[in-house]
């Protein structure tokens, strides 16, 4: 796929409007038939001159347990860029349905720190449409620069799954090898997540997806209860790794089982150090302390 000239948006898209458009698009596709193309949009979506609301930044840092700082947390930048990424997936020529997509994994490179006074240019695109044993998956790439700079300071790749949707021309991979059985380690933290956790994160991230907001809205979309945002959980784990990670790091997370609210989540963080004694790498894993089922796991590594 050859990228064409980017679509320059005048302002950051409204997530609530995107969800309404996605619902209308889903209704049209049910009426007219499913999208059967295996081609992705060639254009990226760009927004220039994005500024940060310091009150929103402070509320985000407080919610996930990040140290109060002028530096933008990596998860906060993901939330800033999220509406732009969703706008690409909301296009009529995007072959997968936005509603119902499952967030499988996320990979972030924070190459240099950004601070709340920086004016930001953001771009988002989709790539790497491919088969999955349960449907079709795609990568959504977001990149953030300081205004007018060619250097990428933050880059995130989010992988989503359209479960049960198999597009023509895309091979279904062979069954994956079974994962090793998970044995819960001794936790280093225990989170108590209330029923309002999804609403609290929506207030600072702008992601008011109904599956996160209440029992009633989640049931309307087929969930038995509301679930926590995956990026809230991953961002809180990153905060628990702490400032030892430094200014430049990679951050990866793989989501396995939803966290239904309210609940408790057990977390274990283990850290490796370089021969000099400096921090090098941390691994984290979170699970349900009652059932022992793993919710997500990931790594944070120095760049």
Question: Your description of this structure?
Answer:
- It is built from six helices and eleven strands.
- With 303 residues, it is α+β, with helices and mostly antiparallel strands.
- It folds into two domains: 7-163, Thiol Ester Dehydrase, Chain A; 189-302, Thiol Ester Dehydrase, Chain A.
- It has an eleven-stranded mixed β-sheet, with helices on one face.
- A hairpin with a 5-residue loop joins strand 9 (263-273) and strand 10.
- Helix 2 packs antiparallel against helix 4 and helix 3 runs antiparallel to helix 6.
- The protein is globular and about 60 Å long.
List the helices and strands and how they pair.
Blueprint: E1 7-9, H1 15-32, E2 45-50, H2 54-64, H3 74-89, E3 102-110, E4 120-132, E5 135-146, E6 154-163, E7 189-193, H4 197-205, H5 215-220, H6 230-241, E8 249-255, E9 263-273, E10 279-287, E11 294-302
Parallel strand pairs: 1-2
Antiparallel strand pairs: 2-4, 3-6, 3-8, 4-5, 5-6, 7-9, 8-11, 9-10, 10-11
Helix pairs in contact: 2-4, 3-6
Total strand count, please? 11
Q: How far apart are the first and last residues' alpha carbons, in Å? A: 30 Å
- The level of helicity is 10-25%
Class from helix and strand fractions: alpha+beta
Strand content: 25-35%
* CATH H level, superfamily name of the largest domain: Hotdog Thioesterase
Instruction: Enumerate the strands of the largest sheet in spatial order, edge to edge or round the barrel.
Output: 1-2-4-5-6-3-8-11-10-9-7
Q: Tell me about the largest β-sheet.
A: 11 strands, mixed
When the domains are counted, the total is 2
C-alpha-based Rg, rounded: 19 Å
Query: Which regions contain 5 or more consecutive residues with pLDDT less than 50?
Result: none
Tally of alpha and pi helices: 6
Look at the structure and give the mean pLDDT.
Answer: 91
> Globular, elongated, flat, extended or rod-shaped: what is the shape?
globular
CATH topology of the largest domain: Thiol Ester Dehydrase, Chain A
Q: What order do the SSEs take from the amino end to the carboxyl end, as H and E?
A: EHEHHEEEEEHHHEEEE
CATH architecture of the largest domain: Roll
CATH domain class of the largest domain: Alpha Beta
């Amino acid at each position: 796929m050859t990228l064409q000239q980017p679509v320059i948006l005048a302002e950051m898209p409204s997530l609530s409007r995107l969800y309404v458009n996605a619902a209308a698009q889903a209704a049209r596709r049910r009426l007219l038939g499913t999208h059967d193309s295996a081609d992705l949009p060639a254009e990226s979506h760009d927004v220039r001159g994005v500024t940060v609301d310091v009150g929103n930044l402070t509320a985000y840092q407080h919610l996930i347990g990040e140290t109060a700082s002028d530096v933008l947390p990596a998860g906060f930048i993901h939330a800033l860029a999220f509406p732009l990424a969703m706008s690409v997936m909301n296009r009529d020529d995007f072959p997968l349905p936005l509603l119902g997509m499952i967030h499988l994994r996320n990979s972030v490179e924070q190459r240099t720190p950004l601070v709340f006074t920086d004016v930001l240019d953001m771009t988002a695109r989709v790539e790497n449409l491919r088969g999955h044993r349960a449907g079709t998956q795609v990568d959504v790439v977001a990149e953030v620069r300081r205004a007018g700079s060619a250097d990428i300071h933050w880059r995130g790749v989010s992988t989503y799954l359209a479960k049960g949707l198999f597009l023509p021309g895309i091979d279904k991979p062979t069954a994956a090898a079974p994962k090793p059985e998970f044995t819960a380690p001794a936790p280093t933290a225990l989170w108590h997540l209330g029923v309002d956790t999804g609403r609290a994160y929506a207030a600072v991230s702008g992601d008011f997806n109904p599956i996160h907001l209440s029992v009633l809205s989640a049931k309307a979309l087929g969930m038995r209860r509301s679930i926590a945002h995956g990026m809230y959980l991953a961002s809180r784990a990153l905060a628990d790794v702490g400032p030892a990670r430094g200014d430049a790091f990679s951050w990866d997370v793989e989501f396995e089982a939803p966290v239904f609210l309210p609940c408790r989540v057990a977390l274990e963080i283990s850290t490796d150090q370089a021969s000099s004694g400096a921090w090098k790498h941390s691994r984290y894993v979170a699970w349900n302390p009652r059932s022992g089922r793993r919710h997500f796991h990931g790594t944070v590594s120095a760049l």
